[in-house]
Amino acid sequence: MLTLARCVLAALFVVLMSFDHVLCYLTAYVMFTIAAITDYYDGKIAREQNLVTNFGKLLDPIADKILMVAGFIMLMRVPDLFIPGWTVVAILAREFLITGARSLAASEGVVLPANIYGKAKTAIQMTYVFVILAIVILLRIAFALAPLRERLPVAPETLMTGLEYLSLVGIIFVAAYTIYSGVQFTWANWTALKLHQM
Fold it and tell me: Which of 192, 194, 198 is nearest to 110 (CA)?
C-alpha cells in the first residue's frame, strides 16, 4: 500500500509542479517529502514483519523510478533552474535499461533486487530534488516579501545565477552517479542476466 501510495503522490507532484506558483511548488514539495518517507518505511516494515515478497522487490524500485522521473522532468520546467535535457535523458536511459534487465531476469524466474549502489543512487537523486526545490521556494518567498528581500546579503540576480549553476553542477553529478550505479548493477548481475552468453 505504501509503495502504491508513492505512485499516487508522484502523480499529485506532477500536477502541482505544472503550475509556476510558489504555493503549488510548496505543496508539491510536501507531496514529494511524504512519498520519500513511504520509500523508507515500506522497506523497513517489510523487513521487520518478514513481508518481503517478489512483488515488493519488483514494484518498489519501479515506484522509486516513477517518483524520480517525475521529479527531474518537472524540475526542468522551473524557469529558475538550468537542467540540460541530456542529463535527464541519461538518467532515464539508465532507469529504463535496468528495468528492462529486471524484466528479462523475471521472465526466467530470477528477481534482481536493488543493490547498495542503487539505493545510494535513489538517495542522491531525492536529495537533489529536496535541496534544489527547497532553494527555489525559499528564494521566491524572499523575493515576494519586501522585508526579506531588503535583507538579502547579495542582489537577487546574483542569487538566481548561483541557483542556476548549483542546479547544473548538481544534476551533472546526479547523472554521473546514476550511470555509475547502472554499471555496477550490470556487473553484479552479469551472470544472472546471461550477458556472457550473448
Answer: 192
The number of residues making up the chain comes to: 198
CB 127 within 8 A of CB 33: no
Question: pLDDT averaged over consecutive 10-residue blocks of the chain (198 residues)?
Answer: 85 95 96 86 69 65 84 95 96 86 70 78 92 96 81 84 97 96 82 56
Domains observed in the chain: 2-197 (1.20.120)
C-alpha span between 192 and 186 (Å, rounded): 9
Take residue 80 and report the three cell numbers written for it. 529558475
Containing 182, the helix (H) or strand (E) segment is helix 156-188
- Which helix (H) or strand (E) covers residue 73, if one does? helix 54-76
Grid cell, residue 13, equals: 507532484
C-beta separation of 103 from 193 below 8 A: no
Residue 63, all three cell numbers: 515506484
Q: Is 150 exposed, middle or buried (0-12, 13-18, 19+ CB in 10 A)?
A: exposed
